[in-house]
Design a protein that fits this description.
Pfam families: GGDEF (PF00990). This is GGDEF domain-containing protein. The chain is an alpha+beta fold and 365 residues long. It contains 12 helices and 12 strands. It folds into 3 domains: 67 residues; 101 residues, Beta-Lactamase (2-Layer Sandwich); 168 residues, 2-Layer Sandwich (Alpha-Beta Plaits). The strands form 2 sheets. It has a 6-stranded mixed sheet with strand order 1-3-2-6-5-4. It has a 6-stranded mixed sheet with strand order 8-9-7-10-11-12, sandwiched between helices. The C terminus is likely disordered.
Length: 365
């Protein structure tokens, strides 16, 4: 049933109702002088009341049938036939319909605000419906893989459908969804970052350090230096001053290493009083030795009375990335081995293990 037939049927019911009412009024006038004319009036009023109820019920049933029949059809949106606006189902959803036959466009009133159209643009697209269709199709082509396009700070999804005589579609504002998604992603990133940070020293923990070193090695597995650092005589601090004082010393050492290392260097505390540093590029041997000596001397000054009274210092084991040592676990193994030799040789020293051209050489400095 189309709109014209609907109107014809409604008109027919009006006409039938009017005829019946006219007949009843004529009957009333004819019975005017009857002895029991007031009873006929009561009967007439009751009959008219029933006819009116019947009339509105029929109109209601016809409209319901019409809406149900066109519930999934785009012409449902033109129920207000004399307006160019579609009833708004939700403020975040806009709908539009273009009829090729009469070159007319119908849309919900919020479409301009969703698309960010000013008054001039609205008037231009209103006068040229074909341009409106091209404009919508062009926006749809610009959507990303998530079927979203950003317009004036809003994230929109556009779905269009081309039929034989009609072009229709909907525009959905997903800005709030994107805000929630972004917040959730940021929260997950924050949780992930916190899970990689040592709560005491604020440098990477074992998991975070290993993950970042492996990422560096994936990008370049031919360069790099791994350092294993261990605090000498750290137990004496806990024994003489308590564990809280020991925690302060660990924090002080972590701040010292962070200050004296470059931003590209990766620093981690893998447990207890042991730290690891990974330099993602190769240093000349002379330059590395100078840095190691300077690092040990400056740390002695930083530790102050801990160094003088308790002989708290730092031993360092170093290994270069080489042909046979190019993954995290082998780097950590040989750096720890070098650290062992440094502590065995008298502490407060550094020991370098390096491997060139598949030949292992060890050097005590």
């Amino acid at each position: 049933m189309n709109e014209n037939k609907l109107y014809q049927r409604i008109t027919l019911y009006f006409f039938m109702t009017a005829c019946i009412l006219w007949f009843l009024l004529s009957y009333l006038i004819f019975q005017r002088f009857a002895a029991l004319w007031f009873l006929n009036i009561i009967q007439l009023v009751f009959t008219i009341f029933l006819l009116i109820i019947f009339h509105f019920m029929m109109m209601y049933i016809m409209l319901i049938k019409y809406l149900k029949k066109f519930d999934h059809h785009p012409k449902l949106q033109i129920f207000c036939h004399h307006q160019s606006f579609i009833p708004l189902p939700h403020q975040d959803i806009a709908m539009f319909l273009y009829l090729h036959k009469n070159h007319s466009t119908y849309h919900s009133m919020n479409i301009a605000s969703l698309l960010g159209l000013d008054f001039q643009q609205r008037q231009t697209l209103k006068k040229a419906p074909d341009q409106f269709c091209e404009y919508i199709l062009n926006l749809e082509k610009q959507m990303n893989e998530d079927h979203l396009i950003e317009i004036n700070g809003k994230f929109l999804s556009i779905y269009t459908y081309s039929l034989e005589h009609e072009f229709l579609g909907i525009i959905i504002d997903r800005t709030q969804d994107m805000i929630k998604k972004t917040c959730l992603i940021n929260q997950l990133k924050e949780v992930e970052i916190n899970s990689q940070i040592d709560s005491l020293t604020k440098v990477y923990n074992r998991r975070g350090f290993e993950l970042h070193v492996q990422n560096c090695l994936c990008l370049n597995c031919q360069e790099g230096v791994m350092m294993a650092l261990d605090v000498d005589n750290f137990k004496s601090i806990n024994d003489n001053y308590g564990h809280q004082e020991g925690d302060k010393v660990l924090q002080q050492i972590a701040q010292f290493l962070t200050h004296h290392c470059s931003l590209q260097d990766i620093i981690g505390r893998i447990g207890g009083d042991e730290f690891l540093i990974f330099i993602p590029h190769t240093l000349p041997m002379t330059h590395l030795e100078t840095q190691l000596k300077c690092l040990i001397q400056k740390l002695q000054k930083s530790l102050g009375h801990y160094y003088h009274d308790n002989h708290v210092s730092m031993s360092i084991g170093v290994v270069f990335v080489g042909p046979t040592i190019h993954d995290y676990h082998s780097l950590y193994y040989f750096a720890d081995m070098a650290l062992y030799h440094a502590k065995k040789s008298g502490k407060n020293k550094y020991y370098i293990y390096y491997d060139y051209e598949y030949k292992n050489r060890k050097r005590l400095l």
